[in-house]
Amino acid sequence: MQRYFALSKNNNKLILNKLDIHHIKNVMRMKINDNIEVVYNSKLYICNIDKISNDDVEISIIEELNDFNELSIDVTIAFSLVKEEKVNLILQKCTELGINSFVPLELSRCVVKIDKNKEIKKIDRWQNICKEASEQSKRNIIPKVYNIMKLKDLINLDYDLKLVCSVNQDVLNIKKVLQNNKKCDKIIFVIGPEGGISKEEEKFLTENNFIPISLGNRVLRTETAPICIGSIINYEYME
Question: Which of 15, 104, 219, 225 is the least crowded, having the fewest Cβ atoms under 10 Å away?
Answer without folding.
Answer: 219
